[in-house]
Design brief:
- There is one protein chain.
- The chain is built from three helices and five strands.
- It is of the alpha/beta class.
- The protein has a single domain, classed as STAS domain (Transcription Regulator spoIIAA, 2-Layer Sandwich), CATH 3.30.750.
- The strands form two sheets. Strands 1-3-5 form a three-stranded parallel beta sheet. A two-stranded parallel sheet has the order 2-4.
- The two termini are 14 Å apart.
Length: 90
């Protein structure tokens, strides 16, 4: 499971992308699940990180889903037209 931090803004985005990509490549399961339940402080960079993680997962042949996505971030994804790219597991 890929775990997002409690805070994910522009300042943390690059480091978080690296951390998630590393975790993604070390897990050999068929599905990549991003656990966003700890995420409390975020901006639109969180969406960019999740979309990059999705792209990486698909590139290595995995499915991608998000668990525990905050309702405000889900609404932002829908507003930006990318909600369907971040399917929920719960």
């Amino acid at each position: 499971m890929l775990v997002l931090p409690a805070e994910l803004t522009h300042a943390q985005a690059t480091a978080c992308c690296r951390m998630l990509a590393q975790a993604l490549h070390s897990d050999h399961g068929p599905q990549a699940i991003a656990d966003a339940s700890a995420l409390r402080r975020f901006d639109s960079s969180a969406l960019a990180v999740l979309l990059e993680c999705r792209r990486e997962a698909l590139a290595v042949g995995k499915t991608f889903a998000v668990s525990g996505l905050h309702p405000r971030l889900r609404a932002l994804a829908t507003l930006y037209g990318v909600g369907e790219l971040l399917p929920a597991t719960d």
